[in-house]
Amino acid sequence: MAPQRPVGSALDKAGLGIKLLGISVLAGVLVAGVALPAVGALGLTAKDTADSFDNMPADFKTPALSQASLIYDNQGGLIAKVYDRDRTILTQEQMAPVIRQAQVDIEDNRFYEHGAVDLKGVLRAVTKNAESGSASQGASTLTQQYVKNVFVEQAGDDQQAFLDATRKSLGRKVQELKYAIKLEEELSKDQILTNYLNITFYGHQAYGIEAASNRYFSKSAKDLTLPEAAMLAGLVQNPSAYDPVLHPKAAQARRDTVINKMLEYKHISPDQAKEALAAPLGIKYQEPQNGCITAQSGMGFFCDYVRHVVKQDPVFGKTAADRQKLWSQGGLKIYTTIDPDKQAAAYHAVTTKVYPTDPVSAAISMVKPGTGEIVAMAQTRPYGLDAGKNQTVLNLNVDAVMGGGNGFAPGSTFKPILAAAALENGIPITQTYPAENKIPYPSMSTCDGTWRATGDTVQNESASEVGPYDMNTAMAKSVNTYFVELGKDVGLCPMRKMTNSLGITTRASGATIPEVPSAILGTLEVSPLKMAAVYATFAARGLHCDPIAISSVVSAEGKKLAVPKANCTQAMSESTADGVNTLLRSVTEKGTAAGISLDGRAFAGKTGTTDNRYAAWFDGYTPELAAAVWLGGPSGNFSMRNVTIGGIRRGAVYGADGPGPIWQAAMREAVKDLPRTPIQTVDIPAPADPSPTDSPAPPPTTGANGGLINGGFTLPPGVIGGPSGKPSRPGRH
C-alpha cells in the first residue's frame, strides 16, 4: 500500500488552509474542471464558508449504508438474501490489496499525497480543459467522490434528493469540498478508501466491492486477481458503458487502461502487466438474487412472513417508519425457527397431493408445542408474481395483516375450542344431550347479555345421527346438534374468552369476532397458522404460545437485537387439555379421522368440512408437533364436489379424505425421528361405536331480505356469519 502523506507537508497545509481562504477562488474551478464565477458572486463570503466547515453531521464520516440482509433456517442454512441495495460491508483486511491499489491508480493516483483538494490536479484540469475548449477533465479527488456517493446514498429512492446530490452546481461542489476537508481531518486515507470501496456502485445492482466481486466473478473481494481487480476498478467511472456483460470489448479496453496505469505508477511489474493484459475477462456472472422469490423448498411464503414480522412488530421499532428503516437499511442476520427437514416434508406433501394447476389450493402450518416456533409453512402454488405459472405472493397460511387473505371457515375443527371452554367451566366430559337430528337454535348468554333465539334451526349431516350422545362420542362423530346444546349450557362468552386465550382475537381479516351460535360450528374465518397454534396448545397440555418465526437477529453492527416473544401462558388447566386430548384421540381412533394413521404413533386431531364443501381441514398433533392443513378454493367459494385434485377425481371432499392425507404424509416424515411420547388423556367410559360422518353445518337460514339472520339482527346478503350455518362466501383471497 502506498505510504501515507507526511504530516504537515506543504500540500497538506494547502489543502487544510482552504478553510481560511474561504475557497473563493478554488471553488470556481471545481465543477467538472470548468471555471465558474467565484464564491463571492453568489453572495458567499470567506467568513460564511469558513464557519460552515464546522457544521458537518457527526455521522457523515461513517454513514449507515444500506446493505443486504440474510435470513437463515434453524440449522444455519440460508433461506434468502433480501435487500434494497445489494451490498456487504467489508473491512480493509477483507479486501484484496490489489483492488485498493487499482482503484486509487485509476481514480486518484496522488490520493496518498494530497489533501482533500489536489491543487496540482485542479491546475492540470483547468489547463487541459482550456486547451481543448471543453470540460473533458475533472479535478475531484477520491475523497470528494466519496462525499458525493454519500449524498447519493442518503437520497435513496427520493428522485429529487438524487438530482440534488448529482447536480453540477457550484453550491453542491462547495458543500462536497467542505465535507471532504473535514473527513480528511478525522479519517485516515485508508479509512476513506475502505468507505469508498464499500459505497461505490458497480452496475447490475451491485453496491460496494464485495457485491461486485460476487456479481461478476462469483468470488469474494479478498480473492480478486490483478486483471479482475483492474476490471472492477475501471467499471466505477461508467458502469453502463463498461458493462462486461453487455459490452465486453469496452470493459476489456477499460481494464487494460487500469493495468497500464498501475504499471506506469510502478505498482506492478512489466511481467505482471503483460500477464494481466493477456488474460481474458473471465466473467462468471451471477444474476442478482434478491428477495423471498429465491427461497427454496417453498420457503418463500415463510420468508415473506418474516418480512412482515420485522416491519410490524414494535420490538423492531416504535413506529412503522422506524421498522421500515431497519428493514431497508439491512445488514441484518435473521435466524428463524423454520426446520428445513420439516419444511421439506410439508412442501412435498402439499405439492404432491394438490397440483398448482388444480382449481383448489392447500396450505399447511406446523408449530412446535410449548414454544410457538413455526417449523414449517407451505402451500400448493409457488411464491412469485407470474400468474401464468400459477404463482402467487398471497400467503394462505396467515392473517391478512401478515400478508395473507381473509382466512377460511374452519368448520368442525373449531368444536374442540367449545369443548375446552366447557371442561374448563366445570361441565363433565361425560355430559350427555339428546342431540336430535334437527333442533332450533336456543337462546345463549353472551358477554354483554343474551343472544335471543330467532327460530332458526341446525341439523346434523346424516339422518341417522340421532342422540343421545356424550361429549366423547359427539366429538368422534362431529355431531352439530350436540355442540349447539353444549354451547347453550357453556354460553358464548366463555367460548369467546377461550378462543381469545388460544390466540384467535380477530378473524383473519382483522374483523372482530361476534358472539353468535354459528361460531360453534366454525363459520368465522381463521388462518391455518392460528389453528396450528390452537392445536399445539392442546398438545402442550394447555400451554399456549404465540407463533414465532424469529429466534434471533444480529444487526449490521454485530449487535444482538430483541425479537418477538412467544408469550407462553396457560390457556386452560392441564386437566382440561387432557380432556380435549381424550376427545380428539377418539376422533383419530374410531371417529371421522379413523382412516388416518401415523405409523403406529399416537396422535390426536379433528376433521372439518364446511357447507357446500367450500373448505376442508384436518388439524392434529403429537406431543412434539402440531399441524393444520386447509384445502379449498383460494379466491372464492369453490364447491369441492365432482372435482379433480392431485389427479384424483372426487365426488365430494371431506376433511378426512382431502386434507387428511396431506397431514398424514407431512407428519409421518416430520416426526419420524422424534420420540414417541404418549399423549396425556383422562379416563372416561368408552363411547358406543360411532360411525364416521364428519358432518358439516347445514346451510344458513335467511331472513326476508335474503340476508343471514345473526345475533338477533339480519345481516345484508353476502355478509358472513349466520347463526345456524356456514358463511355465504369465504373471505376474498
Automatic annotation (TrEMBL):
<feature type="compositionally biased region" description="Pro residues">
    <location>
        <begin position="687"/>
        <end position="701"/>
    </location>
</feature>
<feature type="transmembrane region" description="Helical">
    <location>
        <begin position="20"/>
        <end position="44"/>
    </location>
</feature>
<feature type="region of interest" description="Disordered">
    <location>
        <begin position="680"/>
        <end position="733"/>
    </location>
</feature>
<keyword id="KW-0812">Transmembrane</keyword>
<dbReference type="GO" id="GO:0016757">
    <property type="term" value="F:glycosyltransferase activity"/>
</dbReference>
<keyword id="KW-0808">Transferase</keyword>
<keyword id="KW-0645">Protease</keyword>
<dbReference type="InterPro" id="IPR050396">
    <property type="entry name" value="Glycosyltr_51/Transpeptidase"/>
</dbReference>
<feature type="domain" description="Penicillin-binding protein transpeptidase">
    <location>
        <begin position="364"/>
        <end position="624"/>
    </location>
</feature>
<keyword id="KW-0472">Membrane</keyword>
<dbReference type="Pfam" id="PF00912">
    <property type="entry name" value="Transgly"/>
</dbReference>
<keyword id="KW-0121">Carboxypeptidase</keyword>
<dbReference type="InterPro" id="IPR001264">
    <property type="entry name" value="Glyco_trans_51"/>
</dbReference>
<dbReference type="InterPro" id="IPR012338">
    <property type="entry name" value="Beta-lactam/transpept-like"/>
</dbReference>
<dbReference type="InterPro" id="IPR023346">
    <property type="entry name" value="Lysozyme-like_dom_sf"/>
</dbReference>
<dbReference type="InterPro" id="IPR001460">
    <property type="entry name" value="PCN-bd_Tpept"/>
</dbReference>
<dbReference type="Pfam" id="PF00905">
    <property type="entry name" value="Transpeptidase"/>
</dbReference>
<keyword id="KW-1133">Transmembrane helix</keyword>
<dbReference type="InterPro" id="IPR036950">
    <property type="entry name" value="PBP_transglycosylase"/>
</dbReference>
<keyword id="KW-0328">Glycosyltransferase</keyword>
<keyword id="KW-0511">Multifunctional enzyme</keyword>
<protein>
    <submittedName>
        <fullName>Transglycosylase domain-containing protein</fullName>
        <ecNumber>2.4.-.-</ecNumber>
    </submittedName>
</protein>
<keyword id="KW-0378">Hydrolase</keyword>
<feature type="domain" description="Glycosyl transferase family 51">
    <location>
        <begin position="78"/>
        <end position="262"/>
    </location>
</feature>
